[in-house]
Amino acid sequence: MSKILMISPEKCIGCRSCEIICSFEKTNEFNPKHAAVTVLAYEEAAIAVPMMCMQCENPSCMKVCPVGAVEFKDTGAVVINDDKCIGCKMCVSACPMGNIIFNAKERKMVKCDLCGGVPKCAYICPSGAIQYKEATSTNLNKKKIIAEKFKEVFGEVTE
């Protein structure tokens, strides 16, 4: 069975370790601006939420890509094929989670690719807010519920 990233916002302590390790994995630099995960802090509510690609079954980013550069991998990840990508940034606009970025230094789009099946963010998260688990009907349902809540809060791309 495949594995999926599970986010439990109630467990996030706002340490931002996920941003640091992700940026290092993507660019070999510790620069959260280049991470495919962003921790949003809501100080009034005293919570932090790691925002990342939900690896959608029917991704909006894939639908809008004019050259078919957004693809599914065997790991279950939705990835951007750098050889096909023309840098139009349509995927950035289409992503309801807002976690596709353009790395100007490397001139390429960056999004979560599950680190090739070994997501570093899940392994470094000290509180268990990000976990890489076997896909079961229970946690797939939980993931869909969380994704729907995020879409309600942040708006959804029209299909």
TrEMBL record:
Keywords: 4Fe-4S, Electron transport, Iron, Iron-sulfur, Metal-binding, Transport
Keyword Signal: no
Keyword Electron transport tagged: yes
One MF annotation (Gene Ontology) recorded for this entry: metal ion binding
Domain 4Fe-4S ferredoxin-type: 3-33, 43-75, 76-105, 106-135
SUPFAM superfamilies with a match to the protein in the record: 4Fe-4S ferredoxins
Record-linked InterPro entries: 4Fe4S_Fe-S-bd, 4Fe4S_Fe_S_CS, RnfB_subfamily
Gene3D superfamilies: 3.30.70.20
Entry protein name: Anaerobic dimethyl sulfoxide reductase chain B
Native organism taxonomy: Bacteria, Bacillati, Bacillota, Clostridia, Eubacteriales
Gene: dmsB_3
